[in-house]
Write the structure tokens for this entry.
Amino acid sequence: MDLELLEDAGLKKIYFTKNNPFTYFLKAIMAGFYLGVASILSYSLGSILATIDPMLGKVAFAVFFGLAFILVVFLNAELFTGNCLTTIIPVYTKKLRFSEILPNWIICYFGNFIGASFIGILFILSGSLSHQLPSFLRSVLTIKLNFDIFQLIIRSILCNFIVCIASFVSYKVKSESAKVIILFIVIIAFVLPGFDHSIANMVTFAMGITAFPSTISYSMIVLNLLFSTFGNILGGSILLALPLYTIHKSSLTKA
């Protein structure tokens, strides 16, 4: 059943974190690496095609960012935003207390931060696309760092609502080719409108700090990550997880 599937996944993640915290931390770092790789592809294509037409660059950026989540799913890495769905289900079903899942969230979040930031920094230091990338990156940063807090939270809620739908699909669908296609399509739904994914934002901000160290606002970066993380938690753990639990909880009672 759907709820049992998510509950089992969440329990496994929590127990793995308790028994192998360092290994779990490394898996979270790897997830940050994979988001970094997808960001390299998206920013490269976006910046090149934006020289032809800005909208073409935006679409290219969105279409290929799904690579990040395909890599996370198929290479068994650990992404904070997806865990907001799976690990909260055992809390709803009273198999765990909320305090028991917090170490998982903290370890995963900071592992993602290290991996994502490191790849973002290396990309800028490589000097690749030095003629096209800076202007495209600056345009993204301008949007990310000039925000209304209420709108940022809403964008972040919607972002992880969509990301966790993709995560749910990855557990449900058995065909690998079907997973790839669905993940690509679902992820476009949050990237194209410019919704805020806290971990993906880490790659962008690391790139920005490296490329424009004297002009970027560090306080706005902190605020963006704070509110986007809060919104991502709400989107995965409440907006999606709570209705799923409510719909399917009777199946656990019968079992």
Remarks:
- The chain is about 80% helix and 0% strand.
